Amino acid sequence: MGESLSGATLIHNPTPKVENDMMSIFDKHLLQNISELPKEFQWPSEQLVETSHESLNEPLIDLGVMKTGDEVAIAKAAELVRNACMKHGLFQVTNHGVDLDLTKAAYDEMDTIFNLPVSKKLSAKKKEGSQEGYSGAHGDRFASRLPWKEILTFINDYSKISDSQVLDYFVSTFGPEFQHTGLVFQKYCEAMKEFSHTVLELLAISLGVDRMHYKEFFDDGYLVMRVNSYPPCLDNAHTFGTGPHTDPTSLTFLHQDQVGGLEVFSDNKWLEVRPRPDAFVINIGDTFMALTNGIYKSCMHRVLVNKEVQRKSMTGFLDPRGDKAVRAPESLISKDTPRKYPDFTWADILDFTQKHHRAEADTLDVYFSWLGSSKSAPANSAPANSAPEE
Ligand SMILES: O=C(O)CCC(=O)C(=O)O
Ligand SMILES: [Fe+2]
Asked: What family name appears in the similarity comment (predicted)?
C-alpha cells in the first residue's frame, strides 16, 4: 500500500509492554531536563529518517466557497482536494467556520490540563477498553519506541442526544472546577462537527459521488477529540512526538500551533506541513481510504519533537458508528475498478489495533490477512499491541 518508506521499514511486532514502570508516568519537568534519552523513547535508526527540510506543497482550500454556491469555484477546490488526496492524502483549509478565539481558548485549556500535577492527570488515566482519558507517552501500553508526548482524549458521539457530553466528561473526570474547560472543548467539538460536514461534502464532490453520501454515512458517527502536548526534548534527534504512521480512523481534522514538526511522507521524502494559525489540516485515514475504494491515500505522517519549545496540537478523528459496514459507494466500483476491500466495521478495526496490531502502517492489509489466516492467532508474533495514535 502506498509509497515505500526507503530505509524506514515499519515494524509491526514491537516489544510488548510487560509491566508498569516509570515510563507510564510522563513527568515532563523531569524528562525535558535530562540529557540522556531513556531507552524506551529511543527509536531505531531505520525509522529515524532525516527530514528533507522542505515543505509539502499541499493545497490551501478556501472552504468558504462551499457556502457561496459558486459551482465553478467549488469544482476548482474539489479538483485540488482530489489531486492532493490521490498523491499523499493531506490538504489544509481556511474559512472553516471554527472561530479563532475558540481555538485559542482551547489551547489555553490544554495548559490547564497538562499543567496539572502528575497525580491529578493520572487520576484521569485512560482505562483498558476505553478510548477516553489521559495518557503519557503510552508508557502503560508499550515498552519501547514511546512517543514523546502526553495526550488527553474525549469523545463527542453524534448519535447521542445530550449536547453536554464533553462538558460532562470534564466535570466528572476532573471535578466541578473544570466546568469552563469542559465548556470550551464542548463548543470546540460542536464547531468541528459543523466544519466536518462541509469537508465531507467537498470530498464527495471531489470523488464524483452523491454530494451528501459521506455526510449521511457519518451522521451517527463520532468524533474522537485528542489534545496533544509535546514537551521539548534535549535529544530530539532520537525520538518522535508521534512516529511514522497512517491514522486508522476515517478523517483527521488537525490544528497545530506555530512550532512546526508535522511531516508527511511524499515523493520518497519527509516534508514539513507548514503551520498556519487560520487553517486546519485535513488528512485521510485508513478507513476513509477504504470508503473511496482506495482512490484516496491514507496519509503517512509523523511528528518531530522540538529541542527548545513545547509543541501543541489538537486532533479530531472522525469515525463511523462502530457496527456500520464500511463499504465504498457503488458509483466508485466498475469493471476496471473492482471492489478493493471486503466490508468491515470500524469497531473491528479499532479492536484489532487495540489487541493485535500497533497501527503504524498497512493496518487494513494486515487486518485482512489476519482475518484470512486464523482469527485466533495474533496478526504478528508479538502479543497484543495497539496504536500510538488510537
Ligand atoms: O500532533 C500532530 O500534529 C499530529 C498527531 C497525530 O498524527 C496523531 O495523533 O495521529
Ligand atoms: Fe496521525
From this structure: Belongs to the iron/ascorbate-dependent oxidoreductase family. GA20OX subfamily.
